[in-house]
Amino acid sequence: SLTDAPVTLEILQKWVPRVSHYFDKDHYTYVGHQIVIQESIEHFGAVVWPGALALSQYLESNQEQFNLKDKKVLEIGAGTGLVSIVACILGAYVTATDLPEVLENLSHNISRNTQNMNVHKPEVRKLVWGEGLNEDFPVSTYHYDFILATDVVYHHAALDPLLATMVYFCKPGTVLLWANKFRFSTDYEFLEKVCNVFNVTILAEFPESNVKLLKATVREN
């Protein structure tokens, strides 16, 4: 229930300042690996948001509670790919998804950061929330242990399709981990809808950055 006191955390400075000729690359260190992320200023999805840092940090420091090794993981709205890369380093079979215009940068970051590692090869796929789910990810074939989502809720019109997508992929046994910076009343309204559909626990709060990390599972009838 939401009444359990969540852990209060701060987002640690995992960003490694570099003297670099490129203003568009950020260097992070998670799970003992340096990760280089190229951002793109043209798209919302191509910037590292605080929710991604919060979830990456949480997965790194709670590996016993959420063991991703050999688990099937789907990230929706993967953006720059940071969370998918961290999940991959932690041993998951990762499918990173986002809108078509974000995929090139996403693929670049994921392949660049995982190609020389002994990990399951991650997959990058197009996923427009609420569209073509049955065709592209038929239930008979695709079952995920974890759904990861970070900063997928902000001022946009696609909240209903987003919720429908979460519902579609969350089967019995699936754990949805969603980290988000809460900025607007619409964010809290969306949280309320999520709580109406799923069993929801707040795992952690990062007060400085207004990020909440939530765990949701499907209600068993």
In short:
Keywords: Methyltransferase, S-adenosyl-L-methionine, Transferase. With 221 residues, the chain is α/β, with parallel strands linked by helices.
The percentage helix is: 25-40%
Please report the total strand number as a whole number. 10
Helices and strands, in N-to-C order?
EEEHEHEHEHEHEHEE
Strand content: 25-35%
**Overall tally of structural domains:** 1
How many DSSP H or I helices?
A: 6
CATH class: Alpha Beta
Specify Rg, calculated over alpha carbons.
16 Å
Could you say which overall geometry the principal axes of the C-alpha atoms support?
A: globular
Q: How does CATH name the architecture?
A: 3-Layer(aba) Sandwich
User: Would you identify the regions where 5 or more consecutive residues have pLDDT less than 50?
Assistant: 19-23
- Give the biggest beta sheet: 8 strands, mixed
User: Span between N and C termini?
Assistant: 17 Å
CATH topology: Rossmann fold
Structural class: alpha/beta
CATH superfamily: Vaccinia Virus protein VP39
Sheet with most strands: strand arrangement: 1-9-10-8-7-4-5-6
Q: Overall mean pLDDT score?
A: 90
Task: Please give a structural write-up.
- The protein is 27% helix and 26% strand.
- The two termini are 17 Å apart.
- An eight-stranded mixed beta sheet has the order 1-9-10-8-7-4-5-6, sandwiched between helices. Strands 2-3 form a two-stranded antiparallel sheet.
- The chain has a single domain, classed as Rossmann fold.
- It has helices at residues 50-61, 82-89, 103-114, 133-136, 159-169, 185-197; strands at 7-8, 25-30, 33-38, 72-76, 93-98, 123-126, 146-150, 175-181, 198-206, 211-218.
- The protein has 221 residues and is an alpha/beta fold.
